[in-house]
Amino acid sequence: MLSERRLEVLRAIVQDYVGTEEPVGSKALTERHGLGVSPATVRNDMSVLEEEGYIAQPHTSAGRIPTDKGYRLFVDRLAGVKPLSQAERRAIHNFLDGAVDLDDVVGRTVRLLAQLTRQVAVVQYPSLTRSTIRHVELLSLAPARLMLVLITDTGRVEQRMVDLPAPFGESSLADLRARLNSRVGGRRFADVPQLVQDLPDSFEAEDHPAVSTVVATLLETLVEETEERLVIGGTANLTRFGHDFPLTIRPVLEALEEQVVLLKLLGEAKDSGMTVRIGHENAHEGLTSTSVVAVGYGSGDEAVAKLGVVGPTRMDYPGTMGAVRAVARYVGQILAES
């Protein structure tokens, strides 16, 4: 276990290195941070921190920089979540408040996160499997053709064309729409198959084929993996941190192009808590020089998706964590009110 003083020295090193981009020496630490001890004592503390693997000497200069292990301890023990200012919170509210639909919410959220953190922002669309059905609309396009529109509690809209085996009258369509919504409205996706399995049997025999086709299309919509959608923004921000990546940012850019990699980075949507993965904690080889800060968002207590940022390990963790959490909270409020 490190002493409180050595923890303070580590905190000071992380803060200075993040702010200055320069390796940090003992003299600078004592001058800037009022540690209450001599430079010699700080040098001794830095030697211990280096032996324990929390800091490293990048070259022959006297300065040290944090390692992945050092950043991890900083995040776990030393870094609070920096609260946003009133102006920043107002800017988030104003920017997101004008969104007209879910696509607009996600697009605005990505741009906002990238601007606030100056990192790469990633936002996952709300997961269908964790959503509830708000309404199912059936629109007649031709005597034997319908459009099925599925609207979720998160504002997500899925549309499917349905070709029926025979013409289906307006009165029958209205009846089906009403019965369908009475069964599935406000229910979780996972519950729907059981709720509609006997629906065709409740109609006249001549309507069985049409109702069965509509039910089958609805169930197909529920199980399709359309939830694995996300939006990325602010990739150009990485160019400001070229020297933070050992050789080139190309492996980072290539990794960010792979949607599966990004979904793994964000983690399980059901985990609504803040996650911070640093450097080599990211399994993908191209991202071992980056950190990921992610949190769940949703319209209630349970997260329906994740959002977060990817940037170099030399990151303002308290500020980034505060921004990501605040944006997630506002997005959740918008979904709850939509």
Would you kindly provide a written description of the structure presented here, covering whatever features stand out?
- There is one protein chain.
- By secondary structure, the protein is of the alpha+beta class.
- 44% of the residues lie in helices and 17% in strands.
- The chain has twelve helices and ten strands.
- It has helices at residues 4-20, 26-33, 39-51, 68-78, 86-97, 102-117, 170-184, 192-196, 208-223, 250-256, 259-266, 317-337; strands at residues 55-56, 65-66, 120-124, 133-142, 145-152, 157-163, 230-233, 275-278, 290-297, 305-312.
- The strands form three sheets. A five-stranded antiparallel sheet has the order 7-3-10-9-8, sandwiched between helices. It has a three-stranded antiparallel sheet with strand order 4-5-6. Strands 1-2 form a two-stranded antiparallel sheet.
- Helix 1 crosses helix 3 (39-51), helix 1 crosses helix 4 and helix 6 runs antiparallel to helix 12.
- The longest helix has 21 residues, at 317-337.
- The protein is elongated and about 90 Å long.
- The protein starts with a helix and ends with a helix.
- The mean pLDDT is 85.
